[in-house]
Amino acid sequence: KQDTEGAFLLERNPDCASHDERAGLIAAPGFGRVFTDHMATMRYTPDRGWHDAKIGPRTGLDMHPATKTLHYAIEIFEGLKAYRLPDGGATLFRPDANARRFQSSAERLAMAPLPEQLFVESVRALVRADRDWIPSAEGASLYIRPFMFGVDADLVPDPASEYLYCVLANPVASYFKSGDKAVTLWVSDTYTRAAPGGTGAVKCGGNYAAALVAQAEGKRQGCDQVVFLDAVERRWVEELGGMNVFFVFEDGSLQTPPLTGTILPGITRDSLITLARGMGLTVREERYGIDEWQADARSGRLVEAFACGTAAVVTSIGEVKGREQAFTIGDGGPGPVAARLKSALTDIQFGRAPDPHGWLDRL
Ligand code: PLP
Ligand code: COI
């Protein structure tokens, strides 16, 4: 035990990757496959509350086969990034917003809430311990994955009472193998992602498990990602499996689906709305139908569409395909409004521009 960050005791990994090993791993990390030397962990029990907060060597987890989560998916997670600044320092982007969303996810799954401050401290402490893993290549960053699950070892389908909270970090480059090219979407008419009253507005592993079959169908159809429609009318465009969506019109205005409880309230979405309005653009949070999307793309009323999220940042949508749709947006390539918003966002995140909204949490 050498150091503390708030509640988190640091126990250094005696087998850290060497400088050269680390440099090799950071150089071509892909997404979500390369992990840093440490992880944060903390436990919850009803009698002790949150305790045993530490940053320690990244190790495996030992679990009873009846661990409730393996049977009933009592699991939530978050995703945020640490960025390398021009002066060599590092920063997080809106970790308080992730902390609040983690709380609402916990509440929806009847899990113990994690105080906002402990969430932020855990992320800060892990990134400080593994700061050498933050890439400095253009566009690369350290993706941080806080998650929590019930550890009670019984098969009773009731809320868990004990939890393990854990944070992993991994260096990442571009989320899409295609880099900055526009992506192609598959319109899922067989599957929906979330229904009213369900868990669509929170970040639980179960939402992603249920979307994988649609994503696989999209891949078979030659598309990069799936776009989901609402579960009731099968008409309104909701979001992608891991990204929110924006539409850009000929008159320069933007539109994005409203937060009606079936889509994830993305922090990138929220940040882009603020940035776009700051540029004087009109942004509507209103429903948009798949048929309108096709008609508007064909008539030229719709000039761009893009997806956004922590992992994917801002990615233009070039083409949309489905059993009843096939259309190209603009010239099928990346669009200028997406590019401008992406620059505005990443210039703040990487410390190349001022941070007027106080979004950065420098480490
Ligand atoms: N929608 C879904 C389903 C997601 O998984 C994500 C990624 O976290 C997003 C949207 C974008 O959210 P954020 O911008 O907070 O990363
Ligand atoms: C994110 O952008 O943080 C996501 O969670 C998307 C995906 C990797 C699940």
TrEMBL record:
PROSITE patterns: AA_TRANSFER_CLASS_4 (PS00770). One of its GO terms (molecular function) is branched-chain-amino-acid transaminase activity. Its EC number is 2.6.1.42. It comes from the Bacteria. It catalyses: L-valine + 2-oxoglutarate = 3-methyl-2-oxobutanoate + L-glutamate; L-leucine + 2-oxoglutarate = 4-methyl-2-oxopentanoate + L-glutamate; L-isoleucine + 2-oxoglutarate = (S)-3-methyl-2-oxopentanoate + L-glutamate. It is an enzyme of class 2 (transferase). Pathway: Amino-acid biosynthesis; L-isoleucine biosynthesis; L-isoleucine from 2-oxobutanoate: step 4/4; Amino-acid biosynthesis; L-leucine biosynthesis; L-leucine from 3-methyl-2-oxobutanoate: step 4/4; Amino-acid biosynthesis; L-valine biosynthesis; L-valine from pyruvate: step 4/4. CDD domains: BCAT_beta_family. Its cofactor is pyridoxal 5'-phosphate. GO terms for biological process: isoleucine biosynthetic process; L-leucine biosynthetic process; L-valine biosynthetic process. Keywords: Amino-acid biosynthesis, Aminotransferase, Branched-chain amino acid biosynthesis, Pyridoxal phosphate, Transferase. Gene3D superfamilies: 3.30.470.10, D-amino Acid Aminotransferase, subunit A, domain 2 (3.20.10.10). The modification N6-(pyridoxal phosphate)lysine is found at residue 203. This is Branched-chain-amino-acid aminotransferase.
